[in-house]
């Protein structure tokens, strides 16, 4: 096997090694079938079986109630920015959005192209170092739904608790922290997430939608943009991204085998705390996010100068700690440490940071 480095990329991101090994083992021929998953009809028994088990395992992992449908769609999480308002806005209805980062802003802008969307809260003025507190939200009790972004991938902030909306359905873009901790699905109307961070490979987007909301979709929507099409077609109305769903299925099996979402939460808290403890005890490293809002998935921090940051990224890569450069809108360093990111890799980063401060600080 070629040597693997520690991959801190924000997404597509690190996958569990046993998942890659299983996919590699079965790449040429699924045992007993003799054909690769990539070469199989989406109407074949094997692919239907793979898609059904992926759904069953997701339901078990997140204890998804019966009255929710699970869909595997394409177009990325970005497609949901417009598909959500197209389907969930009622005639002459309006929705609330909270803007807590770059993707939240894109979701807000796209939704505005579809209908009447109100800004219920924004932390942009402060540089997205946190998400709003409940008492800062200006919620419309008549809104068709409230859209928020559970984890802000670029800024490294995260909601600890869902916003309280009374009866207004919550819609969450959970792309960068889905299944990183237990989730009470019953609190949500719709949850969506691109798979390429915590769920697998790029190409498939998971959508979990409460059944009664399906009645809202206008029949005039083009088929591919209507959730009902995909519910009726069991996510195979057209050719689904079968390989990406297959990998997602393996990742979910791996999550179950690790002990599920409670165990993931424990590991993710422990891993991220290793880095945050160092940041808090250092004058050299400066965290971007305010402590109560810090993400367990994307740890963002700065060094005293851009020159030192560039050197940090280069030296780290030389020692096998890769993809640590922060997003250009924040600068500095971002360590993305999703579910599959090993604790040893985080410990290696912390040692590297200590050594870097000692020699360059
Ligand atoms: N939302 C969030 C929170 C993200 O982090 C990303 C991608 N980094 C997106 C949406 C966009 O996802 P996609 O590329 O799958 O459209």
Total beta strand runs = 14
Strand order of the largest sheet: 2-10-9-8-5-3-4
As a whole number of angstroms, the C-alpha radius of gyration is 21 Å
Helix content: 25-40%
Each distinct ligand: 4'-deoxy-4'-aminopyridoxal-5'-phosphate
In N-to-C order, the SSE pattern is EHHEHEHEEEEEEEHHHEEHEEH
| Proportion of residues in β-strands | 15-25%
Quaternary:
single chain
Assign the structural class, choosing from mainly alpha, mainly beta, alpha/beta, alpha+beta, or little secondary structure. alpha/beta
Low-confidence stretches: none
Describe the largest sheet.
7 strands, mixed
- How far do the termini sit from each other? 37 Å
Principal-axes geometry comes out as globular
What is the count of helical runs? 9
Average of the residue pLDDT scores: 97
Overview of this protein structure:
The chain is an alpha/beta fold and 361 residues long. Helix content is 35%, strand content 16%. The chain contains nine helices and 14 strands. The strands form four sheets. A seven-stranded mixed beta sheet has the order 2-10-9-8-5-3-4, with helices on both faces. The chain is globular. Bound molecules: 4'-deoxy-4'-aminopyridoxal-5'-phosphate. Residues 11, 76-78, 103, 149, 153, 173, 175-176, 194 line the site of 4'-deoxy-4'-aminopyridoxal-5'-phosphate (PMP).
């Amino acid at each position: 096997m070629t040597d693997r480095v520690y991959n801190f990329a924000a997404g597509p991101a690190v996958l569990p090694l046993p998942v890659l090994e299983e996919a590699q083992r079965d790449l040429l021929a699924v045992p007993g079938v003799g054909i690769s998953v990539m070469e199989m009809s989406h109407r074949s028994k094997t692919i239907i079986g793979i898609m059904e088990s992926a759904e069953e395992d997701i339901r078990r992992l997140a204890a998804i109630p019966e009255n929710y449908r699970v869909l595997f769609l394409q177009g990325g999480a970005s497609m949901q920015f417009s598909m959500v308002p197209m389907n969930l806005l009622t005639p002459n209805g309006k929705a609330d959005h909270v803007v807590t980062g770059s993707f939240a802003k894109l979701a807000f802008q796209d939704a505005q192209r579809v209908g009447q969307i109100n800004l219920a809260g924004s932390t942009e003025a402060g540089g997205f170092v946190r998400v709003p507190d409940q008492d800062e939200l200006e919620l419309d009790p008549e809104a068709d739904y409230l859209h928020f972004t559970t984890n802000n991938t670029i800024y490294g902030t995260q909601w600890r608790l869902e916003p309280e909306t009374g009866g207004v359905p919550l819609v969450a873009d959970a792309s960068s922290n889905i299944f990183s901790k237990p989730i009470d699905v019953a609190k949500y109307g719709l949850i969506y997430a691109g798979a390429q961070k915590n769920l697998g490979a790029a190409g498939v987007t998971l959508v979990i939608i409460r059944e009664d909301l399906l009645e809202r979709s206008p029949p005039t929507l083009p088929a591919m943009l209507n959730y009902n099409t995909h519910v009726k077609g069991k996510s195979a109305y057209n050719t689904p991204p079968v390989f990406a769903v297959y990998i997602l299925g393996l990742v979910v099996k791996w999550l179950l085998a690790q002990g599920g979402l409670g165990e993931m939460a424990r590991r993710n808290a422990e891993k991220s705390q290793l880095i945050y403890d160092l940041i808090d005890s250092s004058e050299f490293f400066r965290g971007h996010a305010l402590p109560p809002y810090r993400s367990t998935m994307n740890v963002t921090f700065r060094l005293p100068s851009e020159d030192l940051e560039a050197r940090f990224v280069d030296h780290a890569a030389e020692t096998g700690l890769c993809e640590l450069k922060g997003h250009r809108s924040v600068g500095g360093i971002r360590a993305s440490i999703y579910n599959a990111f090993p604790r040893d890799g985080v410990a290696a980063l912390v040692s590297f940071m200590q050594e870097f401060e000692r020699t360059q600080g």
